[in-house]
Structure formats: structure tokens, C-alpha cells
Amino acid sequence: MNIKPLLMAFGVVAATALAGCSTIGGPVHTASYASVTDAGYKLPAIPVAKVPAQYRRQIVSYETREAPGTVIVDTTDKFLYFVMPDGKAMRYGIGVGKQGFEWSGTARIAMKREWPTWTPPEPMIRRRPELAVYRGGMGPGLQNPLGARALYLYKGGRDTGYRLHGTPEWWSIGKAMSSGCIRLLNQDIMDLYNRVEVGAKVIVK
Q1: For position 153, which CATH number holds?
Q2: Which residue, of 12, 46, 142, 194, has the greatest Cβ tally within 10 A?
Q3: Which domain holds residue 41?
Q4: C-alpha to C-alpha distance for 182 and 96, rounded to whole angstroms
Q5: Could you tell me one molecular function GO term of this UniProt entry (predicted)?
Q6: Looking at 165, 168, 187, 188, which residue is catalytic?
């Protein structure tokens, strides 16, 4: 009896089973990285083959005591989890603050904005004087650093100055490049925006 085909079949089954340990509900949602027109702006497609697979949006097993609807940001592994029922979470790849600009703690989403205005904080303007022209705000658009959506983090009723937001710089996902805010692919922040509620708890660790 030739057992080679059986061994090959077993290998396929085993690989599928192992993949299912971390990802639930089928393949990564690559279709949602296509070009999309939103509010008159045409977001370009993400070259998804160039984005490491672990940073593409996917449903994963995720055990936590936090309630569904909570957002948990893992700045070490560069993941953001939107907690779902039954031990699952939607996981997104993120870019985080570079050294010296990190932030951690617990906050709440106080506001949600589509195609937000970006206003650089004064400390950033002091570091980069050329941004002074945007002291009154940069209007929405494809080059706006906040991207297609922004979620504003407040703690104790005060604005932390930190945001969960989109970015056109897809290559920055998985890296520490920002001035402290948590950035997601534009298509991913749009997905998260539609899931999360104002008032939701956000844990950044």
C-alpha cells in the first residue's frame, strides 16, 4: 500500500487544524482591503501581500474578562483587539508610538469622527515648526494623518490627546513610528468604527 498520499492528506488536515487554533471563521478578510469610495474620497487599495499576515484583520480566539465591546491595545505585539462574545475578538494590526511617545492606561471613547480634522498639538509644532500652518487644523482628506476615521480617548472626562485613527501609511503597521497615537489601516479603522460604541472602554498596555 502506498502511504505517501495518506501522509500528504494528513499533513493538509494537520496544517488546517493548527491554523484554526488562532484564526476563527475562515480566511483573513483580504477582500475588505480593496479600493473604496467613502464620503467622496477614494481610498486606494492596500497592497495586502506586502502587509504581514498577522497584521491583517481577522477573528481570533481571545480569552479575557473584559466585556464584549471593549478595545484592548497590545502595544508590544502591535495588535488591537475588539472583544466579541464567546471568547473571540476581531484583531487588527497597528502602528504605535515611537520611543518616548508611548502611552498606556485605561480610557473611554468619547467621540467618533468620520474624516476628521487634524490639529497638531503645540509640543509637536515646537518639534516641527513647519506644522505651524496647521495650528488651526488640517482639513479632511487622503493625506490627513488621522485618515478616514478617528476615535478620541478621554480619561476622567479629559481629553488624553491620544486617538485610535486611520493612516494612509500602510507600511507603518507593525512598527513604532507615531507620536503616540494608535494607527490602523484606513480600511481597518472604518471596520472598527462601525463596531465600537461611544463610551467603550479602551485598555492600552
Answers
A1: 2.40.440.10
A2: 46
A3: 29-204
A4: 5
A5: peptidoglycan L,D-transpeptidase activity
A6: 165
